[in-house]
Specification:
OM_porin_bac; Porin_dom_sf; five-stranded antiparallel β-sheet; signal; elongated; OprD family outer membrane porin; single chain; 141 residues; transport; 10 strands
Amino acid sequence: MNHVHKFNPLYLRAAILFVMLGFSSPIVVAAENGKSTQEEWKLTLKNAYINRDYDNPNLKDTGSWSQAASLFYKSNMQDTPLQIADKPVTIGADASVQYAVRLSKDKHVADTVLPFDTQTQSQVSDFLKYGCYSPIKMSMR
């Protein structure tokens, strides 16, 4: 009996994929200003390599390689002169910017990583997303 294990490159690809998808570099900078709330900046770097190699030649390979950087900001809650039911109201400002770039060539297949235009059958080469909102808090003391 021969019990020699045959190397399967699919297992190596899956292991690399999990390592790369699980790898992110969060950098958090928080500044304490004497209050119980704090300002926070967070930078996250991500790398995604998706390779789906189907045995069926009729299915298109939907794999891609992309990298992204995300920056998140969470402000201190600031006191306001407003009061609701004699309770103080505080307000803050939170924002985020996310940018991703495709490093692989466009395979003209939607792979759910970056936006895909169904009209032109092409995937964008890069993508920018940003947003902000203002949290409002009312003290229940």
